[in-house]
Amino acid sequence: MNLLPALFVPALLMACAPRAATYTTIPVQDLRAAQEKGEYVLDVRTDAEYREGHVPGAALLPLADLGARMNEVPKDRPVYVICRSGNRSAQASAQLVRAGYTRVFNVDGGMNAWTSAGYPVSR
């Protein structure tokens, strides 16, 4: 009895299984290029943080409200998600992917990186 094929079946099944959808983490330079083209930018910080300064044109939807208001986020275009440092935006990106969004981009370093790069801020 040859057991060798039986050893390869689990590995083969894993290799053929569909991969879980995920988001992509991008640098602020990529966000800047997308923002200049009018792409959808989602800021998941608090109202107070947003008022202190945000990416021009960014929509505000605090992370705490995302689950209840996800229908406000367009599914038919890429979604660029930003927060202060990249932590909340990673959580929001994961939530969006679990909800079926397929083109989700988390901004590495968040607004800290955006302002450090000297990009414009709206208040």
TrEMBL record:
Its keywords, alphabetically, are:
Signal, Transferase
Q: Domain Rhodanese, which positions?
A: 35-123
Q: List the signal peptide residues.
A: 1-20
Q: Looking at the keywords, is Manganese present?
A: no
What's the superkingdom here? Bacteria
Can you name one GO molecular function term for this protein?
thiosulfate-cyanide sulfurtransferase activity
Q: What is this protein called?
A: Sulfurtransferase
Which organism is the protein's source? Deinococcus indicus
